[in-house]
């Protein structure tokens, strides 16, 4: 709704660009006010992921579910009585997480060791989904991701650049491919809704020198996910598709300490799972505000040259900080 109003305001503004500067200022204020209003009313129009919506005793499949955001999603979904399928590379950690969840919650947890960087053929993905073909899966969280240390793209090892593409993009596409028909049938036969959550990043809002490859993978995820949102919002599939685009979260991947702008994985998971019918969301109110300002200043208002040199500087600082932390 707001995007249409914003577009209309900008169109009127542009048509008055010559000679009517005050009108443009008024329109700009209206646009900013509408965005702030959207930010403020958001908390009151959110839908939560519950077994009431997606089916009692149904399962949530989470890739990269042994650590970080994936693990936090698993724990939060178990608190909401969902059974779990956790897929990850890290066998030891999978066992630990599964055990600790089952000690706390009366849910079933199936763990699958799978290397998304190596098992990349359609057949291997089909075999992976067959491992839980007898379970009533209602939620797919395409979370797994890797991020190379900040560096100039030309200096990144080719195999590391490839790994980032394989792990960050391929599972999102392949698991959606093999699961959508199943989820659709679930709705058509039993009127049970499902959810696909795709984890992108705030990085996908704009270009990010020194993280070019990672940034590209996240834009891929974001646009893929947003396109699916419209394709599956057809009244016959019963599948909610949400794009989660967090900013910094304190995990092994970011190696950042928790603070105001760096949220905990728990906070990210709760924020994300409490807002599952959004077109795109950021997983926590701090990140909603951050994304709001990134869009407003860096994307919309600042000239590209200035915004570009800011992001370039940020990338250089990130590289220095990461090198010092080694
Ligand atoms: N943390 C952030 O600041 C942040 C911000 C925005 C978006 N995100 C996105 O959020 C998602 C989760 O990130 P996170 O921070 O939670 O990362 P994380 O703490 O590193 O957790 C990712 C999990 O995925 C596993 N994994 C990595 N490579 C794999 C592979 N080839 N096959 C199977 N499993 C693999 C990891 O196992 P190992 O531990 O054994 O590697 C780990 O258990 C990613 O898509 C990331 O891009 C993160």
UniProtKB/TrEMBL annotation:
Highest taxon above the source species: Eukaryota
Transmembrane segment boundaries: 12-37
SUPFAM superfamilies, A to Z: NAD(P)-binding Rossmann-fold domains
Gene3D superfamilies tied to this protein: NAD(P)-binding Rossmann-like Domain (3.40.50.720)
GO MF term set: oxidoreductase activity
Keywords, alphabetical: Membrane, Oxidoreductase, Transmembrane, Transmembrane helix
InterPro entries, alphabetized: NAD(P)-bd_dom_sf (IPR036291), SDR_fam (IPR002347), VLCFA-Steroid_DH (IPR051019)
PANTHER family, sorted: RH59310P
Family: Belongs to the short-chain dehydrogenases/reductases (SDR) family.
Protein's name in the database: Estradiol 17-beta
